[in-house]
Design brief:
Layout lengths: L4 E5 L3 H12 L6 E5 L2 H9 L9 E5 L7 H10 L8 E5 L4 H9 L4 E4 L2 E2 L4 E2 L2 H16 L4
Parallel strand pairs: 1-2, 1-3, 3-4, 4-5
Antiparallel strand pairs: 6-7
Organism: Flavobacterium frigidimaris
Keywords: Phosphoprotein
InterPro entries: CheY-like_superfamily, Sig_transdc_resp-reg_receiver, TCS_response_regulator
Length: 143
């Protein structure tokens, strides 16, 4: 059985660590690839030697070089990649970001909460997403 594959597109190292920590709680095998911006992610997806077609992409919106919305636009125009499941992860609660992402056919939108008291990011919503949604997508869809 093929291990499910996840592509995490995130420029914030603390968020990468938080996602990795949440994914470990799946207690199932998976393959995680990480890109730090949209350009890097597209290179990975288009690299014929890597043959990366992830089951799910977890995508930050606010990134340097190519943000999440720009990445999504390119992804949806690519015949080979246009149908990939993409979940947006962002601290942005801007309605325009959400609306634009939804127009581009995202599978879900996760607001990354911040704990302003001690300036650390909380993993509550990521843990809930991983346990209740990602687990179902990766392991119950017959993958």
């Amino acid at each position: 059985m093929k291990k499910p594959t996840i592509l995490l597109v995130e420029d914030d190292e603390l968020d990468v660590i938080s996602v990795e920590r949440s994914l470990k709680k799946l207690e199932s095998e998976y393959v995680l690839h990480t890109a730090y911006n949209g350009i890097e992610a597209l290179k990975m997806l288009r690299d014929s030697e890597l043959e990366l077609i992830p089951d799910v992409i977890l995508l930050d919106i606010n990134m340097p070089r190519m943000n999440g919305i720009e990445f999504l636009k390119v992804l949806r125009e690519d015949k080979k990649l246009k149908d990939l499941k993409v979940f947006i992860m962002t601290t942005s609660s801007e309605e325009m970001d959400r609306s634009e992402a939804e127009k581009l056919g995202i599978s879900g939108y996760i607001i990354k909460p911040l704990n302003y008291n001690d300036n650390t990011k909380r993993s509550d919503s990521m843990d809930a997403f991983v346990q209740f949604h990602l687990r179902k997508i990766l392991f119950d869809d017959g993958i």
